[in-house]
Amino acid sequence: MEFILASGSPRRRQLLEQIGIRDFVVRPTDADESLPDGIDPGAAVELLSRRKGEAARAQAGEGDLILSADTVVALDGAILGKPHSRAEAVSMLTALSGRTHQVYTGVTLARGEDILTEHEVTAVTFRPLTAAEIDAYVRSGEPMDKAGAYGIQGLGALLAERLEGDYFNVMGLPLCRLGRMLTRFGLDPLAGGTGEETP
Q: How confident is the model at residue 122, as a pLDDT?
């Protein structure tokens, strides 16, 4: 059996290793990431993570366990994706400045015909940002490949003054929820990933 991470995200790789899962292969997919108009952010990340999992499952062995995930930032219910330009990154960060937004991550585990999909949400509050601070952060380049135009694990940590919920969810993989999901597939990271029950 192989444990397959259907994501190219280095952060997700690091988070898996953090909970003791080191024997895995990375196989990103090119699943369709389009979304229906007006879709709820929670439903959106579940749909996208499931698509990624199903795409990876088509190339996997019957006993392989596949992990896929998708993360979005939402402000007032509207999804903010990855910025396509510096101007768009500035616009997103300006909108987030001094306000609370939500980070949603959908997680899918799949083995054969068994598929489990859930999502986690974390509230993040940004401190008020000046135009100069936003410009400096955008010039760092960090926002350009991040949902919502920031990375909490990098310089973006200087922008967020409060989090309510799973911090690792904001990084792209809610570890507490993932741990519970893995037990449904016979894996328990607390027991060394053997699936054995702890006393």
A: 98
Kindly tell me if the per-residue pLDDT of 112 is higher than 50: yes
For 136-162, the pLDDT digits (tens) are 999 999 999 899 999 999 999 999 999
Report angle CA 24, 12, 59 to the nearest 5 degrees.
45
Number of other residues whose CB lies within 10 A of the CB of residue 118: 18
Question: Domain 3-191: which CATH class?
Answer: alpha beta
Residues in the chain: 199
pLDDT band per the 50, 70, 90 thresholds, residue 193: low
Buried b (16+ CB within 10 A) or exposed e, 13-50: bebbeebebeeeeebebebeeebeeeeebbebbbbbbb
pLDDT of residue 117: 98
Q: Which of 37, 64, 70, 145 is catalytic?
A: 70
Is residue 76 flagged as an active site residue? no
Element (DSSP H or E) covering residue 181: helix 175-183
Cβ density class 73-112: b for 16+ within 10 Å, e for less: bbbeeebbebbeeeebbbebbebbbeeebbbbbbbbbbbe
Domain edges within the chain: 3-191
